[in-house]
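Translate sequence into C-alpha cells.
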Amino acid sequence: MTCNNCARHVTEAIQGIAGVQSASVSLQNSSAAVRWNSGEDKNVPAILTAISKAGFNAKEISANASDEPRQSRWQWNLMLGLAVTAALMIGEWIFHLMMADWFRWFSFFLAAIVQVFCGAQFYRGAWRQLKIGSSNMDTLVALGSTTAFSFSCWVLFRGTGEHIYFMEAAAIISLISAGHWVEARVSDKASGALKSLLNLAPQTTRRIQNSEVRSQKSEFDLRTASFANSALRASHSAIEEEVPVSELKINDRIALRPGDRVPVDGAVLEGESAVDEAMLTGESIPADKKNGSELFAGTVNLNGRLIMRVTATGEATALAHIIAAVQRAQTSRADIQRLGDRISNVFVPIIIGIALAAGIFWAIHSGAEKAFVIAAGVLIVACPCAMGLATPAAIMASANAAARRGILIRDGVALEKAGKITAVIFDKTGTLTIGKPEVAAQHEFRIQNSEAGILAAALARNSTHPMSQAIAKVSAEKTELTDWKEVRGSGVSAILPSSTFNLQPSTLRLGSLTWLREYDVDLHVGENFIADWSTQGATLVGLASESELLGLFAVRDALKTNAKSVVAQLQSQGFKTYLLTGDNALTATSIAQQVGIATENVFAEVRPEQKAEFIKKLQASGERVAFVGDGINDAPALTQANLGIAVSRASDVAREAADIILLKSEIEAVPEALGLARATLRTIKQNLFWAFFYNALGVPLAACGIISPIFCAAAMGFSDLIVIGNALRLLRWRQK
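Result follows.
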C-alpha cells in the first residue's frame, strides 16, 4: 500500500466478507487486524482472496507478531530517492552540467536506480490495478515518471543533444514518496485515541489462588521451611501469582494495588478506592468504588487495595467494545464520500485522455520534448489522492476526538447525520433526570396499614424498570401472586389468587394513570394527591384491583444538575428541543419548565411505539431529529430518529439501536457530540472543495505548460497534506 486510499480500499474489501465485524488496516505497519462476529468461523482464505481482487497481495501473520512498523525498506528507498534527486539537482541547477556527456550518462544511471528500487511500489500497484481492470494513483505516478524517463532515454541513446529529464523522473517518484511518508506519519496522529485504547489493558495481573491451591502450597511450605518463612510466603506469593491476562477466566479473583490498571471487567469484592475512568468515559473526576461496584478494563486504581471478581474477559469487556466501535467509525464511509468515490473511479481514465490530448497538441506545435514533459506533468498533478482522503481523514480524526471525550460514534454515516440535525428530543427518566427515582409519598384508598404498599412492592419486584424498582423498596413483605406480566411502557399486572387484605381474588395492576384509565379505573378519588405531586414534578403510579383504585404513589426523580444548561446550549446552537415522555402531562410540564423546554414542545403520556410515530410526524414536517434516551422502551424511537443517542448506563437494546453512545454519566456530551459532528461535516466539505479546486486548477496549468513536472509532484503531495492537516484540526476542536 502506498497511501491512505490504498488502506481504505483494503478495508472495504475485508469488510465485505461475511462474518467480519470490523477491520483496522494500518498503512504504517502494512497490516490488517480483523474482528469477527461472535460465533462466526474465521474465513481467512476469503479475506486473502478479497484483498487480491482489490489489487493487493496479503498473507496471514501470527497474532503475536510485532506491531512495530515494517517500513524500514520503504524508508531506505525514500532516502535513496531523495539523495539521488538532490545530487541531480545540484549538478543541473548549481554546476550546470546538464549538457555534459558524462553527467547525462551519470544521470541515467542514478535515475534508473530510483525507477527500479524506489518506483517499484508504484509500478507494482499500477500493474495489480491493471490486472483487475482498474486504475488508481499508482497508475498516474507510474505513467508520469515512465513518460519522463523513457523520453530521456530516447534522447540520450539517439545522441541528439536535446534536454533530458532524468532529474524530473527521479524527483517525481521521490517527492511523491516523501509526501506519502509524511502523510502516513501525520495521519497516524489522528488514530492516537485508538492506539491509547489498545494500550490501556495490562499484559499481566496478580490472580489470587483458590483455597485448595493455597492450602496445598502452605502445607508444602510448612514441611520444607521454617514457620516464619512459610507464613511470609503464604501471605504473599502463595496468595497472589503473576499471570498473563489472557489466562483469566470468569469468577477469578484479582488483587489490585494503587496504581494498577484493571486488566478485565469485574466487580469489587473487597476494599474501597477511587478509580480513574477518564480514558474510557472522559470524566476527569475519579469514581469511588466499594463492594459491588463495577470495574472496567483499562481504568486505573488510584489509592486503595481492591479485590475484584472477573465478570468479562477478552472481546466481552467494555474496553473491547469501545475499541471495536472506534475502529468501525474510523474505517466507515459516509454518504458524502460516494461523490468523491464516483469521481475518482472515472477520474484516472479522463486524466490519461487529457494527457494524451495535451501531448499530441504540444507535439504538433512544439515537438516531442515539450509533449512528453507536459503529458507527464498532467498525469502527476491530477492524482486524485486528496479527493479520496477528504472524507475518511476527517471521519478518522473526528472519531478519535469523540472517543477522547467519552463519545462513541457508530460510523461515518452517523457523523454525517449528526451534522444535519435540526431538532433534539429528550426522554425524561434517566436522560433529563438522574434515573434513580424514589417514592416521595403514597396514599391508600379502602385498604390501610400500608397494605397498598405491600401489594405494589410485590407487583413491582420482578420488573427492572426504574419506577418499579423504586416502588419495590416500599415493602419487603411478600405476597403470593400468579400470572405476572409486564406491559412495556405501561405497567405490570398479576392475579391475586386468594383473599388478602379484605380483597377478593382479582387482577391487580400497577402502572401509569393513562394505562389504568384504559381499564376504567376511577381516579377521581385521588385528584388532589395527583394534582399536588404532579406540579412538583413527581410521576404518579397507581395500584388498582380490577377497576377500583387502591393506592397512588408519587415517585420523584431528581433532575441532572446540568440538564438546564444542556438544553440552553442546544437552543443557542439553533436546535429545537422537545420533551417526549410516558409520564402524565402535569409532571412533564413541570420538568420541561425546570429545564427550559417550551410548553408547546412537551408531549406526555406517550407510549414507546407512539414515540416513534411522533418522530415520524416531525420528520414529515422537514425536521431532522435526534432522540436522546436510555431505556429499553426507547429502542423504537432511537431507531426511528435520524440520529439515536444513548446515554451512559443505557440498556443493551438502546445501545444497539443508537448511532451515538455517551459514556459520560451526564448529558452535557449531547451538544458537544452534535457540535463536533457539525464541525466534521464542515471539514469534509472544505476538504472536498480543496481537492476539486486543486485538480480544477492544476490540470489546466500543467496542460498549458505553465508548471513543471517537479512542481506538479510537489503540489500533489502538498495537497494531501493540506487535506489531512485540515482534518487534524478536529483533534483540537472545542465546544464554544
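Note: The domain at 410-433+561-670 is CATH 3.40.50.1000 (Rossmann fold).
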